[in-house]
Structure prediction request, 305 residues.
Amino acid sequence: LRTLNIQEDGQINRNDGVYLPPEKAEMYERFSLQEHDTLLVMVGATLGKVGYIRKSDLPALLNQNMWLIRGHPGYCCKRYLHYAFKYIVSSSLGWASGSARDFLRRDDYRNLKIPVPPLSIQKAIAHILGTLDDKIELNRRMNATLEAMARALFKSLFVNFDPVRAKMGGRKPVGMDEETSGLFPEGFEESAIGPIPEGWSAKPLPEVIEVNPRRALKSGAIAPYLDMKNMPTQGHCAEEVINREFRSGSKFQHGDTLLARITPCLENGKTAFVDFLEIDQIGWGSTEYIVFSPKPPLPPQFAYY
Prediction:
């Protein structure tokens, strides 16, 4: 697991993972992770990010840019340790040092003190917080499944043109009523990008979708702010939006799509659909993402998908 595999909420995302063959993985057995392990990014741009290992994340190996925090059996509930460590680690980031890039020293953490109530209380705290996190994780997986279904449907309709191919073969398009089926032609025509459905057109993206459109927001105005760390890697919802004084940055409005343009956020697929603003409200945020706004008659969601 690399640092980019740890999401902002601490969940593990195995997308773009690096894999080793079993015979090579055995050479690194001492770096094997276990269920309920806690990971801490101790160097680089995502310094201080905390991850949590679930059974579904295994097997996995520890990366050299992360530390492993593991409770002693019988003395510390591992899941309680994760929450205790997660909630105090942010205050310790002031210890970070380094000339080229920030890093945390192991000795500072060896001297770190955390509250250790009796084991029964640790387990009760871990159960309450764990139940909530498990529900959040279940919802996240359900959302990821729905998102994958939406992507597959979009690809079927607008990339593979499956309804057109079905009609050409004398078949009824799958899962489609007569009215929707009637929107698709029964053949293809040539275009600059290859065969496309008859009557459709191929155009450069800026002709149909505005890129970084102009939005009016006065300097010093208090407006909703979205930074890069709160851009989602799965689903379309921004994780946290705060009100902040506008200085400079990307500006967006309801219905816009935001796409990360800098690694590793671009590699992680950070994309958001702006549905958290009022219709006439302008928000702003990082210069590290691009704003897309479809032109009529395209619906706003088209750019996101």
Observations:
- The first strand starts at residue 38 and ends at 41.
- The mean pLDDT is 87.
